[in-house]
Amino acid sequence: MLIIDSHLHFDENVDGTAVGAAHELDRQLAKAGVARAVALHLEFQPWSAEEFAEAVATTERIKAFVNLHPDRPDAVSQLRYAIEKLGYIGLKLHPRLQDFAVDSPSTVRLVQAAGDMGVPVLIDAFPDGVHLMQGFHPVRYAILAKQCPQTRIIWAHMGGHYVLDFMMLAKRLPNVFFDISYSFLYYRKSSIPADMVYAMHSMRFERIFYGSDYPDRPIGLSLQQSMDSLVTQGLSNEQLAKIMGSNVCEFFGWADLIDSV
Ligand SMILES: [Zn+2]
């Protein structure tokens, strides 16, 4: 089965360098049989977009999204630079940690620009206590997506415990996708994973991607626990294959991996 990890990060605690983090990540991915992974650069980590891109370029297996703050005046030109010169394949936005409004004019402008450049945008959609107090609401994500119909947007973590609201919105927004990272294992002992699987069924197992949010857990452990749980929840092999790799492979148009299936 083709396995692609659509959402992970570099671990700052390998040797402190981006190259060291990339190599350790690549080693774990290879060992776990993960064919490709999308690493999300983060502004609050100790590496510049250039350093991060250089580290990513040392491996075949890892692609990357750049993290920018939508309120910076040069956000659109910085995104163009990251895509065209540094080799990034998408934009990562983190409204909670970067503290900006999902539906603000500057966010809309940057997300529209990503669509014009033909790259997707991944937005953190995990409602922890901080994010809730900042005014987190699924509708604000929908307002952004509706104003950017040319941009493919991934709602990361499937909206956490708001998964059913996000699912209902996604049904009216064809440019929206999900990853299941973090939430699926974080809420393990609750009813949320069953709701996430319900949402998968309701969306016919389309537009939903596996992700680990490494270094939350080691790559192999996240993969094993996620697959075990999905199988326990009754997914067929065909349904599992869509979530674990083929949906996201199609999303990015990675023909080399499609051929290898
Ligand atoms: Zn993450």
Would you spell out the secondary-structure blueprint of this structure?
Elements: E1 4-8, H1 18-32, E2 36-40, H2 49-56, E3 62-67, H3 75-84, E4 90-93, H4 95-98, H5 105-117, E5 121-124, H6 129-133, H7 138-147, E6 153-156, H8 163-170, E7 176-179, H9 183-186, H10 192-202, E8 208-209, H11 219-232, H12 237-252, H13 255-260
Parallel strand pairs: 1-2, 2-3, 3-4, 4-5, 5-6, 6-7, 7-8
Helix pairs in contact: 1-2, 3-5
The chain binds zinc ion.
Zinc ion binds at residues 7, 9, 40, 213.
Commentary on this structure:
This protein has 261 residues and is α/β, with parallel strands linked by helices. 48% of the residues lie in helices and 13% in strands. The chain has helices spanning 18-32, 49-56, 75-84, 95-98, 105-117, 129-133, 138-147, 163-170, 183-186, 192-202, 219-232, 237-252, 255-260, and strands spanning 4-8, 36-40, 62-67, 90-93, 121-124, 153-156, 176-179, 208-209. An 8-stranded parallel β-sheet has the order 1-2-3-4-5-6-7-8. α1 runs parallel beside α2 (49-56). It starts with a strand and ends with a helix. The model has no long low-confidence stretch (mean pLDDT 96). The structure holds zinc ion. The site of zinc ion has 4 residues, from loops. Zinc ion is lined by residues 7, 9, 40, 213.
Entry keywords:
261 residues, alpha/beta, 8-stranded parallel beta sheet, 13 helices, 13% strand, binds zinc ion
Strand content: 5-15%
Number of strands: 8
Query: DSSP helix count?
Result: 13
- Gyration radius (Cα, Å) is 17 Å
What string, H for helix and E for strand, traces the elements in order? EHEHEHEHHEHHEHEHHEHHH
Shape: globular
Helicity range: 40-55%
User: Major beta sheet, specifics?
Assistant: 8 strands, parallel
**What ranges have pLDDT less than 50 throughout 5 or more consecutive residues?**
none
| Average pLDDT reading | 96
Instruction: Give the class from helix and strand content and strand pairing.
Output: alpha/beta
Strand order of the largest sheet: 1-2-3-4-5-6-7-8
The rounded distance between the terminal residues' Cα atoms is 7 Å
What ligands are attached or bound here? zinc ion
